[in-house]
Hints:
The complex is a heterodimer of chains A (474) and B (200).
Chain A: H1 5-13, E1 14-17, E2 23-26, E3 29-32, H2 38-47, E4 57-60, H3 76-92, E5 95-97, H4 107-114, E6 122-125, E7 139-142, H5 145-154, E8 156-159, E9 163-170, H6 179-190, E10 198-203, H7 205-209, H8 212-220, E11 229-231, H9 236-242, H10 253-261, E12 273-278, E13 285-287, E14 295-297, H11 311-324, E15 339-342, H12 344-347, H13 350-360, E16 370-373, H14 378-386, H15 389-395, E17 399-400, E18 421-424, E19 440-443, H16 446-455, H17 461-464
Parallel strand pairs in A: 3-4, 3-6, 4-5, 6-7, 9-10, 9-12, 10-11, 15-16, 15-18, 16-17, 18-19
Antiparallel strand pairs in A: 1-2, 2-8, 13-14
Helix pairs in contact in A: 2-5, 6-8, 13-16
Chain B: E1 8-11, E2 13-15, H1 23-26, H2 46-49, E3 72-75, H3 87-95, E4 99-102, H4 107-115, E5 120-122, H5 125-137, E6 143-146, E7 151-154, E8 159-161, H6 166-173, H7 180-185, H8 187-196
Parallel strand pairs in B: 2-3, 3-4, 4-5
Antiparallel strand pairs in B: 1-6, 6-7, 7-8
Amino acid sequence: MGKSLFQKVWDAHTVGTISDGRTQLFIGTHLIHEVTSPQAFGMLRDLGLKVKFPKRTFATVDHIVPTVNQDAPQDPLAAEMMQALRKNADDFGVTYFDLASGKQGIVHVVGPEQGITQPGTTIACGDSHTATHGAFGAIAFGIGTTQVRDVLATQTLALELLKVRRIEVNGDLAPGVYAKDVILHIIRLLGAKGGIGFAYEYAGDVFGRMSMEERMTVCNMSIEGGARCGYVNPDAKTVAYLSGRPYVNMSDFNATAARWLSFASDADAHFDDIVKINAADIEPTVTWGISPDQGISISENIPDPATAATPLEKASIEEALQYMKLAAGSPIKGVKIDVAFIGSCTNGRISDFREVAKYIRGHKVAAGVTAIVVPGSQIVAIQCEQEGLPEIFRAAGFEWRGAGCSMCLAMNPDKLVGDQLCASSSNRNFKGRQGSPTGRTVLMSPVMVAAAAITGSIADARELFTLEIPAAVA
Amino acid sequence: MALDPVPFVTGRAVFIPGADIDTDRIIPARFMKCVTFDGLGEFAFYDVRFNSETGEKTAHPLNDPRFTEASILVAGVNFGCGSSREHAPQSLRKYGFNGVIAESFAEIFYGNSTTLAMPCVMAGAADIVAIQEAVEADPTVEFTIDVKALKVRSSSGLNIPVTMPDSAREALLSGRWDPIQELLDNESQIEKKARELHYV
């Protein structure tokens, strides 16, 4: 019996077993940001500990950074957090991609673009969207702040072994169906808690054809399905993407690439569960509720609690509809929006902006809609500028911003107001997630967000634009 | 590091209804603009406890005077999902909770809670309803989460089997719920592993 990638990486990084039975796992790469790290450094100071391997921790600032006037946050608490990260990085000798570096951005965009994220490695970060890095065949997961301390002090974590569920998607995606739709569809099928106790392996020809950036979109939202990590097996695209990146050692690169590829799951690997999905069944998908598994295709109607299978499901639908101010059984298409947001660690990469820019020429954002576009990193922003994308977005009435987490999570000035409804390319539609306790979020792909911005209401992008299947690139 | 074993916790309980209660709900992101965990207790469940426009208290169970003494939180499925923020269990701890009983938990929340010596145990759906009914009938009922026996008992006579991962149970019973000392003690193996890994 062969091994899955998960098992190979786990075995290669196992240091030992601690007294409660958990594995002490070596964490090769540690990413930190300003929100979940200051208390961890405080704990280190209290315990008189140093950072064990300072070269293996990389910091950036993303959550609290404003997307306008970035280096001078008006919020004194935000300024204090940025200063704390500067001081902690300096005191403990950790690499920090700050605003002046030209490399700052959302931590899950920065890691891959610097080539820090590599196949066959373990990656931890005090952030649940760390699963993003699984797109490269890494075992990557979010941790709490006390665990950030553990990684800083020992480069290890005490962890329970996960089971592995292989999710195979085969067939052809139709035009207008993107990586975001694939993962929203998977979460809808398996549920927000379906992945508890599992790592997700995304396999099948659909993921094989996806670009690295599309794979990142899929792996990013593993946690929304309850899975702490998700990954795609490394292949030639993975190697091509990483070749020449700043943190990839190019001496003897062929041997490095061969080692990376050797971590891919064996053909006869054991999986604890296998789920098969037909790509042709996936449509442009949007959420209608307050949990990421409350999703429907754009052509479906909003669920009716009267048809719920269980009392619990009925209560959940009722709670969601009341919060979202949506009518049971009515179409989701046509629901008026107030705000449109394209960005985040899910969909804030160069290919996301290129894809939207292909279709919005000649269109205008609807009156009364605020539409903002936020590149995931300073490097993505520069790429966009070199390709003339900001002009295309501005001409269509979108605001073009600086790099950061922006409106995904409401820790910076980009927030919903009152019960505004936002068509969002981000990852969570929780109550209050986008900064107003009554704000409403509808998750969808970036092209669907653009269609909603232009129409002024949730729309089927296939009816507004003549969509093509994006050419897969590494 | 000598820590206190946590063989059981005892206290009154409060039931918070709803599935998939996420960590944004437990502690809204704006309260994470801080460099220490101090003071998070007062912001637990803030946006569902207070009306955002009027600032008035809502009908949330944590605003119900019958439950002000509660130190055990009772919830449904997938409690603590979403963001990995340790600020969530930290805020519950500082609010005054010592343990959580739910149908199921999200993993990162679960691990964060155990590391704070806050036992989280899983009970069946019918048993959660029984606890809810007991609390509603008499908010002064005392509950014990018995980590050793894997039971939840109440002064009203409930005796419910619960589950938790062996590792969490062992960590709480042995006073090793914060693993830092054990991790540090394996320094030579850590360094050996670092030398084995090509990329470190």
